[in-house]
Design goal:
- With 366 residues, the chain is of the alpha/beta class.
- 43% of the residues lie in helices and 16% in strands.
- The strands form five sheets. Strands 6-5-7-12-13 form a five-stranded parallel beta sheet, sandwiched between helices.
- Strand 10 and strand 11 form a beta hairpin.
- It is globular and about 90 Å long.
């Protein structure tokens, strides 16, 4: 009995305080020395059923990537809940360019004034407004949904859609289900749109995420993904699916016809609903194929061919970043993402911005 009391006393007087001190030290370390990533808070926009950010909770913050927060980006949430260095003015009479996309348009990975849409806006500030509407995880189907929100609230003159390789399979609800974004599904009567569900914030999770240590483990160290990868290796062994640009390539090849019909529907619907506006699609380049000179073995080239064919047959503007990235890499040997993240780095954003500026400065094709 005395031995048990001694163990209990040591646990309460030594072990517990030591753990508390270690946790406090870790919390301070990942708050001030190696700042844990602090992304903005999500919400369902009150002006439309789209996912954006809640500036009333935090309008400014630091998004970090890497074990030592090597990559850092300062974000700012504006008056309409989007990551932008400036507020959006609905009363302005300047022509408006709306840039719609996912995390590549959101641009949390670098300072908000360095992302592509901000660079375009800065260059055109005397003649046009450029507003961006990007949200991480959004697929192509969500872009259609956001374009309706943008048309209702801002009535743009030009719509620019930034397309990423995983936009295609993630648009289909039976391939990758994400109820927070609009998706599509095949039916006997054609393609149906599945509207998104309103985002319901979990107050418990919001309270937990105030901890810098928790954010560091969950976001910087990707604890959830690491654990899931370990489980997949145990359960699948050598049969784990091949991923390229965050896509399960094998699964996508099994659904080629569905992918084609889905993207055709989305492009046709966007063009139909914006017949009085200029619509431009711009697609991320095949970066790994550029670095490795492996175009002959590319399993994603068909997505570029698909976009090109659909847009060409409907007299729609389509810009493929592959040749632009390829030319720049051949000359400078500079990559378009950092070692810590697959999103565009500053150079990538600059090249895309320059490409968009070049297109906007050219007259719309007849």
């Amino acid at each position: 009995m005395n031995k048990f009391r001694a163990i209990l006393r040591n646990f309460l007087l030594v072990t517990v305080p030591t753990i508390i001190l270690l946790l406090a030290f870790a919390e301070l370390t990942f708050r001030f020395i190696i700042p844990a990533s602090f992304p903005p808070y999500h919400q369902t926009d009150p002006n439309g059923n789209v996912m954006n950010y809640n500036a009333s909770l935090n309008s400014d913050g630091l998004f970090t990537i890497g074990n030592f927060a090597q990559q850092r980006g300062r974000w700012h949430i504006n008056n309409y809940g989007w990551n932008s260095p400036f507020d959006y003015d609905r009363s302005s009479t300047k022509p408006l360019v709306a840039i719609i996309g996912d995390s590549y348009v959101d641009g949390l990975q670098l300072d908000v004034d360095q992302k592509m849409s901000s660079l375009v806006a800065d260059s055109l500030q005397d003649s046009m407004r450029v507003y961006s509407f990007g949200m991480a995880g959004a697929p192509f189907s969500q872009y259609l949904h956001v374009s309706r929100y943008v048309n209702t609230n801002f009535d743009p003159d030009i719509l620019v859609f930034v397309v990423i390789h995983n936009d295609f399979d993630e648009s289909h609800t039976d391939m990758i289900r994400n109820p927070l974004f609009m998706q599509i599904e095949d039916s006997a009567h054609g393609i149906n749109e599945i509207p998104p569900k309103a985002y319901r914030p979990n107050n418990t999770i919001r309270m937990i995420r105030k901890s810098a240590l928790v954010r560091y483990l969950y976001i910087n160290l990707h604890a959830k993904e690491v654990l899931q990868g370990f489980i997949n290796r145990l359960t699948m062994g050598g049969d784990a699916p091949e991923y390229n640009m965050n896509i399960n390539v094998d699964a996508m090849f099994e659904r080629l016809e569905d992918i084609k019909s889905g993207i055709t529907y989305l492009i046709e619907t966007i063009l139909k609903e914006n017949s009085d506006k200029r619509v431009i699609f711009i697609m991320d380049g095949l970066r790994e194929e550029i670095y490795n000179n492996s175009f002959k073995n590319s399993k994603l080239m068909f997505l570029h061919m698909l976009m090109s064919e659909i847009c060409a047959s409907r007299d729609c503007e389509f810009i493929d970043m592959t040749p632009i990235f390829k030319t720049h890499y051949a000359k400078h040997k500079q990559r378009f993402e950092t070692p810590y993240d697959n999103h565009w780095n500053k150079l990538g954003h600059e090249l895309v911005a320059n490409t968009v500026l070049g297109v906007l400065s050219s007259p719309e094709p007849e």
